[in-house]
Amino acid sequence: MSSDAVRTTFTLDFLDWNPWMERATETPLTPERRETVEAIVGTSNAGNYINVLANDLEALQARALVHRHVYSSEDPEPSAWRELGATTASRINGCVYCASVHARLYTKYTRRRDVALRFLAEGVDADLPEVERAVVDLAAKLSTDPESLTPADLEPLRQAGLDEMTILDVINYTAFFANANRLMLTLGEPAVKEE
Question: What radius of gyration do the chain's Cα atoms show?
Answer without folding.
Answer: 17
